[in-house]
Structure formats: C-alpha cells, structure tokens
Amino acid sequence: MQVFVTGASGWIGSAAVDELLADGHTITALARSDASASALAAKGVTVQRGDLDDLHGIRRGAQDAEAVLHLANKHDFAHPAVSDAAERAAVQTIGDALSGTGRPFLLAAGIAGVVSGRPVTEDDASPAHGPDSARGGSENLALGFVDRDVHSVSLRFAPTVHGLHDHGFLAVLHDVARRTGVSGYVDDGDHRWAAVHRSDAARLVALGLAKAPAGARLHAIAEEGVPTREIAEAIGRVLDLPVASVPAEKAREHFGWISYFFGQDLSATSTTTRRQLGWEPTGPALVEDILTGAYTTNP
C-alpha cells in the first residue's frame, strides 16, 4: 500500500515508518527540514518537502496515496491555539481529499481531557468539538469523515511514549529535576500516567492500518497508570537527586508548562485494542526504562 505520512521523522513517526516499510508498504513522507528529508530518503522513503502549513502539499499527498497516517503536530505548548488551528486545518484537508474513496486515514490523538475520575477506554468519545477545543477537535473531525466514506481511525497514544533518546514529557521532567535540584511530584503523587514503549506504539500503528475498523479509537497503552510519585522516584534515583512533593499551587512555578499534564490523572486501558488487533506490548515498562538510563544516556 502507498502511504502518505506526516510526522514521519518524529519520535513515533520514525519508528512507525520502519514498521510500515517492514510490512511491505511504500511511503511518501512530508519533510520540513533537510535533515529530516535526508534521513527519510536513506530509508527508501519518497520525500515531499513541506510542513503542516502547506495545505496544498498535504492535499496532494493525500490524494495520491492509498492511505494516510497523520502524526505531525506543532506541539507549541506555549501557544496551543497555533498548534490546534494547524492540526484542525490539516485534518480537514486530508479528510476532504479522501472523501468518497474508502481509504484509511489514521491520525494521532491523546487521552487528556477525555474523561476524569477513571481510566479512559476506547468507548469514551472525546468531548473536544470545534476549532476552539483541544487539538482543534481533530479526533471528532476525523472520525466524522466516516460518514463521507473515509476509513478514519484514531490512534490515542499514552501521555508518555518512552524509550532511549526520547525528547518528550519524560525528558522534560528530567530537565526540570536537574534545573531545580529535586525530582518532584504534585501533591501526593497519586496521579497516574498511562505509558507505552515506542516500539510497541509503532507496531500498533502498523496493525491499525492493517486491521482496525473504520471509526475505531485505538489505545497505544501498555501500562494503565504509573503513579507520578513512582516516576519522580525513578528520576531521582538515576539523577541522584532528592525526591519531594510540590504543592499544586506551586506546581506551575516548579515544573513550568508541563505541570498542566503532570498534575493530571492520565490513565487509560487498551483492552478493546488488544482484542481487536491481537496487539500485545513487549517493550520495557516506564520505570524500567528510566532506571536503565533511557533518559540519561547521550544520543
């Protein structure tokens, strides 16, 4: 299958591309920089230069493909409205391009804000609708294209997709600990974060393309919820730093923007996903990854 991929050189995207190539797919990927273009070309990927603001290029890539995997996001946490607007515009463009074709459209989503007080399941619809909502309401927008004969599938990734040389949320928490001299957690640290290893997340993407029914919400969740206190304790151990509670009212001052996420319970299950796809995670657990140096070993 010819697959058009956005975010192909990113943390999840680069691993997902390897899985898709191994499964025999051919890939055209959107690349913003020379470095990304070179890395993708070295894998045998056809490079299409452009970024999330190049809607004409995104439309062309989607129209020419047999399937689309949309993983790119600006991740501008200081200016979320910018990221949300770009995300919605890209999803709208892809959906319009695929309408009436029955072709697969897989997009990255998350579990934050879906429900509170319990783990998120695949049956839980996102409450985010419209351009002013989280992520521009992109998950519901994409799944709405099922009614226009698009095989849309949501890929909900755990808040931490961890692994060696990850530069995401866990890397930020390590940096905060180094900067402040303490590995902190918010209040009692009983908030839980779902987690998945990068290799398992990438395999889920490939299985989702091959097997997921239209309208499915897939959960890339290996661990339902790791207490944030345990995360902080593991970081403190590898960095040889003290571990301490940070009161919620001081969390923003201590952690910066990531306090919004680290102070939330972001737990989720993947029972339905495992049953639908036959997916079973095999990668290391989150705390194991931290303790074995995934975030302290130089690239």
From TrEMBL:
GO CC terms, sorted: cytoplasm
Residue ranges constituting the NAD(P)-binding domain according to the UniProt record: 7-92
Gene3D superfamilies: NAD(P)-binding Rossmann-like Domain (3.40.50.720)
InterPro entries: NAD(P)-bd_dom, NAD(P)-bd_dom_sf, NAD(P)-dependent_oxidoreduct
Highest taxon, organism lineage: Bacteria
SUPFAM superfamilies for this protein: NAD(P)-binding Rossmann-fold domains
Molecular function (Gene Ontology), one example: aldehyde dehydrogenase (NAD+) activity
PANTHER family assigned to the protein according to its UniProt record, in alphabetical order: NAD(P)-BINDING DOMAIN-CONTAINING PROTEIN-RELATED, PROTEIN YEEZ
Protein name (database record): Nucleoside-diphosphate-sugar epimerase
Organism annotation: Promicromonospora thailandica
